[in-house]
Amino acid sequence: MAVDHAAMEARADEFRTAYSRVKTEIAKVIVGHDEIVHGVLTCLFVGGHALLEGVPGLGKTLLVRTLADALSLDFNRIQFTPDLMPADILGTNIVMESPDGRRMFEFQRGPIFSQIVLADEINRATPKTQSALLEAMQEHSVTVGGTIHKLKEPFFVMATQNPIEQEGTYPLPEAQLDRFLFKLVVGYSSRDEIAMILDRTTRGEKPHASKVIDGETLLTMQALVREVLIAPHVQDYAIRLGLATHPDGPYAPAITNQYIRWGSSPRGVQTLVLAAKVRALLDGRFNVSFEDLRRVYLPALRHRTLLNFEAQAEGVECDEILLKVLDAVPEKADEKAVAKAG
């Protein structure tokens, strides 16, 4: 079967143009944080959810709001608090009275029925309320009273959480963390970036992002991502990156056995491949490289790797361990060493 390289290049150009337009609109409001913006947009163009972690005041909520402004999609914000109940998110059946006096149940939709949902400070809600998001995030549907309600596509959950204020918070369970495509750690702005932020926000200016992409275009771009090719040996590298986080496994380096309690699920490897395909398209290629996988490695796996007590006691960060695991995994598999270890 002949490959139409011209058509492939044209579609890749369309992808880069769409991606660039959204990124340009976000840059009108958000200063810096290029890698965070890339991470959020990768989730958007793959069709996955994003978890943004950082101290208050770094622009996490503003970034998601700005993203919603740049897209012709429905947007809802849910402020998570300890007294928030599942029905406050999903909706509930209420009794309605018809004009002839008969009573019936009618489903009133909650704020989850949107296309971009900002789950602000998600770790402030109880586990029962957090779990209300699980079905929506995985199946893109909500079940209430035995009835399944499908969510409108495309559908994204963009969640934020504060890593330092732990009083009155409930850490997200591993099953829910695994549903997020990326975990993005938002850091502090630089001196020049803070100066630019002040110029934009203390002089009466109100920068605003314009809508540049609609849902149909976004779904088309998501389908294109899955068509990007990945060679068997590159895919095998992604698989070994995931397996290298499994302690006592045949691909585990010494640091994994020393510090990691549980490693990445297969969903982590899926994330590596899909996110790497986005990177390939942005670089003008229709095939994934080893470097593409390395560039998305940390946000894809940092929330899918659970450290053991020794790592916590020594104050070793997960990113630090994962980078050493990454360095220990060769691009070409040493099958003899694996067979000997097995």
Task: Lay out the secondary structure.
Elements: H1 5-27, H2 34-46, E1 49-53, H3 60-69, E2 71-72, E3 75-79, H4 86-90, E4 91-97, E5 103-109, E6 116-120, H5 127-139, E7 141-144, E8 147-150, E9 156-161, H6 174-177, E10 180-185, H7 191-201, E11 213-214, H8 215-225, H9 232-243, H10 254-259, E12 260-262, H11 266-282, H12 290-295, H13 297-301, E13 306-307, H14 309-314, H15 318-328, H16 335-341
Helix pairs in contact: 1-2, 2-11, 9-11
Give a description of the structure.
There is one protein chain. This protein is α/β, with parallel strands linked by helices and 342 residues long. It has a domain at 228-342: Helicase, Ruva Protein, domain 3, CATH 1.10.8.80. Helices cover 47% and strands 17% of the residues. The chain contains 16 helices and 13 strands. The chain has a five-stranded parallel sheet. Strands 2-11 form a two-stranded parallel sheet. A two-stranded antiparallel ribbon has the order 4-5. The longest helix has 23 residues, at 5-27. It is globular.
